[in-house]
């Protein structure tokens, strides 16, 4: 039968319901057939109208309304809402100009920083760990568009900034850069919760205790 050449062909041959097509469109999985997810959603509705009281109503064949081009941030937000990740640029990349203005370094910029220097980093909190053998020390991982920064959180900082430590999704960390052999850490001295910069973006982290 050959490859699918339209959303309508996909719906007919795969016998997909409207909700299936809408889920695929929202996840940007129909880009090859319909372009942007907004166009794909319109085509999904047309290809598989809902079987309800309106199913017998006449269909308006006029062109779909022209929609403004979505921003890169819109696309990233939609990706995270539907599949929990994005194949576009990392969210922190969009914030880099604002972070640079606050003198927050990227993970790549910190790799060659000498041991013992003051450092500031910012990223999505993707992991928090507090092993039972660590005597109250927590280990965090911040991810940005260039890589990850491992952060050591001592008990006194956790006690002082518990909310920022445990609740932040986008976190700025200031402290001392520590290099031991090939292992690099930021020993945190202060945190700032920058989660509001993410707007409606919802991210998650792995929590190990």
UniProtKB/TrEMBL annotation:
Which GO molecular function terms does the record list? 3'-5' exonuclease activity
Matching CDD domains:
DnaE_OBF
Would you say which domain of life the source belongs to? Bacteria
Please give the biological process terms from Gene Ontology that the record holds: DNA replication
Q: What is the protein named? A: Error-prone DNA polymerase
State the organism of origin: Burkholderia vietnamiensis
């Amino acid at each position: 039968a050959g490859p699918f050449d339209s959303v309508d062909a996909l719906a007919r041959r795969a016998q997909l319901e409207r909700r299936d097509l809408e889920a695929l469109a929202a996840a940007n999985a129909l880009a090859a057939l319909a372009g942007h997810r907004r166009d794909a959603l319109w085509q999904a509705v047309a290809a598989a109208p809902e079987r309800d009281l309106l199913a017998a109503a006449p269909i308006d064949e006029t062109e779909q309304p022209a929609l403004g081009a979505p921003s890169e941030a819109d696309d990233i937000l939609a990706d995270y809402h539907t599949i929990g990740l994005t194949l576009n640029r990392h969210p922190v990349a969009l914030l880099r100009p604002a972070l640079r203005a606050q003198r927050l370094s990227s993970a790549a910029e910190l790799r060659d920083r000498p041991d013992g220097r003051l450092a500031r980093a910012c990223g999505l909190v993707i992991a928090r760990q507090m092993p039972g053998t660590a005597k109250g020390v927590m280990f965090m991982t911040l991810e940005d568009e260039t890589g990850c920064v491992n952060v050591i959180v001592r008990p006194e900082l956790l006690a002082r900034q518990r909310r920022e430590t445990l609740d932040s999704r986008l976190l700025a960390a200031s402290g001392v850069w520590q290099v031991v052999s090939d292992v690099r850490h930021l020993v945190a001295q202060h945190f700032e919760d920058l989660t509001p910069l993410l707007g409606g973006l919802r991210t998650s982290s792995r929590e190990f205790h």
